[in-house]
Amino acid sequence: MFFAKRILSATVGTKLVLRYSPTPSDCRVCTNRKSTMSLTGKGEVILIIDDEECIRDSCCQVLTKAGYRVETAINGEAGLAKVREICPNIVLLDLDMPGTSGFEVMDRLNEISPGIIKVVVTGNTAVDLEKEVIRKGRALSYLAKPFSPEQLKQVVRGALDSKGVGNREYAEKSGC
Predict the structure, then answer these.
(1) Strand partners, 15
(2) Which of 88, 95, 111, 167 has an alpha carbon 20 to 30 Å from 76's alpha carbon atom?
(3) Contact indicator for 62, 92 with CB cutoff of 8 Å
(4) pLDDT for 48-85, tens place per residue?
């Protein structure tokens, strides 16, 4: 469902902001759905850990329609509990969250299940941060907010393909 909001500003004028907000039935229990898009999933399990509800719900909507099974968590601790429960193929993780930070979650994910693919999704676009996350091997990829649905699907599909998700060797390394 799309919502429009008109914002009046003395310095900028009037601007119209469109926001997509999935309904609760769209994402509370995400299920596989077939899609004809080129960046489709094969039922892989994706966990989104982000404290921003609009990011969780929007990513869930996009990825579910692309054929992935998607689960969400509101913070790091809830995300780690979900990892133990569902053993996802990939985790999309915000770094800046209250409580357990994304960095702590990445480190604990490596202890729980070293083979889980980690993709950082954050509004912090500092080049040093990107280098630290990827070069130190904490995450496979980095996606800066805001991003388009196509960018999200490309990063997810690329990460899954690069790790050979679905083959026997990946399943043995994932630790689940």
Answers:
(1) 7
(2) 167
(3) no
(4) 999 999 999 999 999 999 999 999 999 999 999 999 99
CA atoms within 13 A on the CB side of 19: 13
CA-CA distance, 133 to 129, in Å (whole number)?
Answer: 6
Measured distance CA(11)–CA(75) in Å, rounded: 36
Helix axes 149-162, 53-65, angle to 10 degrees: 70
- Measured in whole angstroms, the distance separating CA 10 from the mean position of its chain's CA atoms is 36
Domain assignment present for 7: no
CATH of the domain at 138: 3.40.50.2300
pTM: 0.72
Residue 158, Cα to own-chain centre: how many angstroms? 13
Number of domains in the chain: 1
The whole-angstrom separation of Cα 90 and Cα 45 is 7
Q: 16 with 5: CB under 8 angstroms?
A: yes
How far is 117 from 175, CA to CA, in rounded Å? 12
